Amino acid sequence: MKLEELVTVMLLTVAAIDQYLPIGLVLAGVLLLYITVVHGDFIYRSYLTLNRDLTGLALIIEVKIDLWWRLHQNKGIHELFLDIVKKNPKKAAMIDIEKDTTETFEEFNAHCNRYANYFQGLGYRSGDVVALYMENSVEFVAAWMGLAKIGVVTAWINSNLKREQLVHCITASKTKAIITSVTLQNMLIDAIDEKLFRVDGIDVYSVGEPKKNSGFKNLQKNLDAQVTSEPKTLDVIDFKSVLCFIYTSGTTGMPKAAVMKHFRYYSIAVGAAKSFGIKASDRMYVSMPIYHTAAGILGVGQALLGGSSCVIRKKFSASNFWRDCVKYDCTVSQYIGEICRYLLAQPVVKEESVHRMRLLVGNGLRAEIWQPFVDRFRVRIGELYGSTEGTSSLVNIDGHVGACGFLPISPLTKKMHPVRLIKVDDVTGEAIRTSDGLCIACNPGESGAMVSTIRKNNPLLQFEGYLNKKETNKKIIRDVFAKGDSCFLTGDLLHWDRLGYVYFKDRTGDTFRWKGENVSTTEVEAILHPINGLSDATVYGVEVPKREGKVGMASVVRAVSFEENESQFVERVGARLSSSLTSYAIPQFIRICQDVEKTGTFKLVKTNLQRIGIMDTPSDSIYIFNSENRNFVPFDNDLRCKVSLGSYPF
To answer: What is the pLDDT of residues 336-375, one digit of tens each?
Structure first.
């Protein structure tokens, strides 16, 4: 029915009813009918989500009040940790599965103090930087917490990095020293031997016996000789001080060092605890890399700031997950979606029916396996969405399947939330703007890029960015909803459904996500381009059946004049990628092309290649990475069948 027809019917109805009822009651009825017809759907949706939105609003208020109180106290993380130590001196704090050791809060604090006193004795002061290139271990946590006590900033280096990427992360931090493990020192020696960087003026420590003739120092011997009392207070270290650098693979280039301040660490750890009900009585199982925010803050932070016990495994093991959880009586774990798929694929073991695990907190769990995972393992999922450097995050507080969080649909409650979605170009990822230059906000039922408010006068909404200020500016979008305002642009596409739930859709820009890690395509291209006999190359992510995220694929063009057969060329390319990249960053497919499409300004066009994916084309040949021989083999029909069935061991 058209609007004018509806109005006519309403007027006739009013005229008829007016003969029998008071005019006030009639008008009230008409108003009610109008509201029902025009706004009825919104009212119904608001009713369905009222409890969720009010709960979320109460959570935001609770977290903000707590953070403002901590800002008023202005204590650093190390001081807040000491408060926890005093409350729980004899309680188990850190359990290292690899070393089979348990340290109480009192013992772990003494462990931290050895680091603090040793480096303070060497003259290290607030603002100095020490790079940590170590595997998951209690030692890693003790190192950064101990150094934080004297104001030394630690750079958390990805333990999978090697050669160019490793050197970039170390040099970008302007570190005065490097602390590494006995096993990882070999990667440092390799980079030095390849003359990729020099360690002149940088002290390199091995937590254990260093290799002969390496020039590295045995840190363990020095630590054993240190006193365990609290270090001297020589500098002001407070809630707003820089705590560490955490490397994130953004949309372009090499990994970027995101600046993490004490209050940001606190807000992530405590915000997650309040959102999902993590308590001091819980035991947190951490098997994800603790050089990342998720495990290093969201996981380990529950012990340091909440008094939970923390169980650390060197590397995730699907076959040992439930055994560990039972053996160490774990009740909470941190996850990424990929490990949930691995766990579901495991055969049933007796431990999965007797564990006390009640909650898994993390991100990236796909809707297709969410409910089967919950049903089989009898756990609650605490899905969230955020970034290391971002100013805000989303949380799924009611366990809605597939959602990474929610945004209120009510105009009243959504003003309290600093996160919005804006419309962007599907191909370029650029914000779509109106004639007056402002961005267009998404409505429920639409997809867009997430932006979070930046306010310089509000410490909770300040964007600290990266060490590289040019990279920082790239993540800031201006004139978003009003002239002069600014927001942090996440680089991800999200879908906002009609009930306000938000779902991760895709990444924008030159990045894809594989095995729980963000991979910068330009970073991989930088490794490919110097190869002799290669005239052009482009890297992008493609979907493969029954796998999380997108797998890397490189389309390369051989130089015509180079005398070498294709298999020899591919072998050289594979050797270069294997020696220079982490396992998750190595493209799993290579497509040999006649040419790659470019724009008029010679920018590579990847959309058509992404659409083709791993499909065969008459003019191209495709190779797949074999993890056993660490190189590429022809992508024949047998391998294609394994990939389609999800059984190929990427």
So the answer is: 877 887 888 788 999 999 999 999 999 888 888 899 899 9
Distance CA 302, CA 81 (A): 11
- DSSP annotation of 152 reads P
At 27 the pLDDT is 61
For residues 399 and 391, the answer to whether their CB atoms sit within 8 Å is no
DSSP code for 231: P
- Model-level pTM greater than 0.85? no
CA contacts within 13 A on the Cβ side of 401: 9
Please state the φ and ψ torsions of residue 104, each to the nearest 5 degrees. Answer: -70, 170
DSSP lists the bridge partners of residue 537 as 556
As beta bridge partners, residue 502 has 405, 496
CA quadruple 478, 481, 482, 488: dihedral positive or negative? negative
Q: Which residues are bridge partners to 394 per DSSP?
A: 385
Cα–Cα distance list, 384 to 266, 337, 396 (Å): 17, 11, 6
Angle formed at CA 139 by CA 134 and CA 141, multiple of 5 degrees:
90
Q: CA of 447: how far to CAs of 15, 27, 41, 74, 493, in Å?
A: 46, 40, 20, 40, 7
Residue 552 near residue 541, CB atoms below 8 Å: yes
Question: Which residues are bridge partners to 258 per DSSP?
Answer: 246, 466
Q: Render 387-419 in DSSP notation, one character per residue.
A: -SS-S--EE-TT--TT-SEE---STTTGGG--E
User: Phi/psi zone of residue 3: left (φ > 0), alpha (ψ -120 to 50 degrees), beta?
Assistant: alpha
Helix (H) or strand (E) holding 504: strand 501-507
Interatomic CA distance for residues 246 and 438, integer angstroms: 32
- Determine how many CB atoms are found less than 10 A away from the CB of residue 51: 10
C-alpha closest to that of 98 among 183, 156, 158, 162? 183
